[in-house]
């Protein structure tokens, strides 16, 4: 597994800033509708759903999962069992 490198800001995704663009594509209406349904079921926007889907396809689910878990671990270090800041 490649090393996990966090971006500088806590407000960006685990892969860093999202600066690269992918060309716009056209799909049938029913395909877009189904992708929107899947995104809603996951509780995220269509853009987030497609981004995560592409990242999993490009990098593998284990790498993407490890990045998100590492990031979550970093931000939850100082939380108690109830999810509140300990102290």
Automatic annotation (TrEMBL):
One of its GO terms (biological process) is regulation of DNA-templated transcription. Pfam families: RHH_1 (PF01402). CDD domains: RHH_CopG_NikR-like. Residues 25-55 form the Ribbon-helix-helix protein CopG domain. This is Ribbon-helix-helix protein CopG domain-containing protein.
